[in-house]
Each structure stands twice: as structure tokens, then as C-alpha cells.
Fold this sequence. Notes:
Shape: elongated
CATH architecture of the largest domain: 2-Layer Sandwich
CATH topology of the largest domain: Alpha-Beta Plaits
Number of strands: 4
Strand order of the largest sheet: 2-3-1-4
Number of helices: 5
Largest sheet: 4 strands, antiparallel
Distance between the termini: 18 Å
CATH class of the largest domain: Alpha Beta
Amino acid sequence: xxxxxxxxxxxxxxxxxxxxxxxxxxxxxxxxxxxxxxxxxxxxxxxxxxxxxxxxxxxxxxxxxxxxxxxxxxxxxxxxxxxxxxxxxxxxxxxxxxxxxxxxxxxxxxxxxxxxxxxxxxxxxxxxxxxxxxxxxxxxxxxxxxxxxxxxxxxxx
Length: 157
């Protein structure tokens, strides 16, 4: 994907939204010294370009009953089935991220389970049926922090 051509206003908008995605357009406009309509148009442009991928509501997993967060590396029996496995993973609601990686794994996923018994069920009943040679699991005890990418205006290359 080609790098988007962004100007200083675009970077100001991205910086503001990355720290507070719910900030009203008019407030962003005041901070940037432009009209609310200009901010609205820029945000639509950034979305159409694929720079902004929408907004999301972040839910604390434990507060809704998902106490176990796991990262699982997959070794596929047939790595050419990657796309097929990805489509089947989309059908498992507990799987929240899927990555095609370098290194020892063919792919790497993040999922949430209600508890360790539920995780074991997901591995044995859902994941092993995908054509995996084997898996390696890591359980996260606690997410210490999570943040957006740093957005700074770039110097012209």
C-alpha cells in the first residue's frame, strides 16, 4: 500500500483523534484554526484513503466475563491453506486478531476466553479442526498498557 500524502492539518487531526477519538469536530476545528466543515471533509478524506479505519468502542474483557487473554502461534499442516484458515477463524468470535508473521509460526492469533477451561475447549474443539500441526500458547496475566501509534507531523522526505 502506498504511503498517503498528508499535510500538516491531516497530522493535527490524526494526533487529536488518536488521543481522543470522541472529540467533537467543532472542538478539533477550533484547535486547528479551521471550520467544522473543513474538519468533517478531512476526516471523510482520511477515511476514504484508508488512513482512518473507523472508530471503536473498547470493552474491558474481564468486565464482561472474558478473564483469559491468550496469544497462540500456529504451525499449519499445509501453509498454502492460510487464507482458508483465516476465513474459518473469522467465524470464531473469541478470536480478535490474526497475524501472518515471520519467524517460527505460520500465523499468530489473539483470543479471549471466559476462563482456562473455555480456552482449552477453543483450542481442542475449534482451533485444532483448522488443520494445525501444532500450537504454542501464551496466556497474558494482565495488559499493562495499550496505545495508539504516535502521530507527529513528518518532515518532507
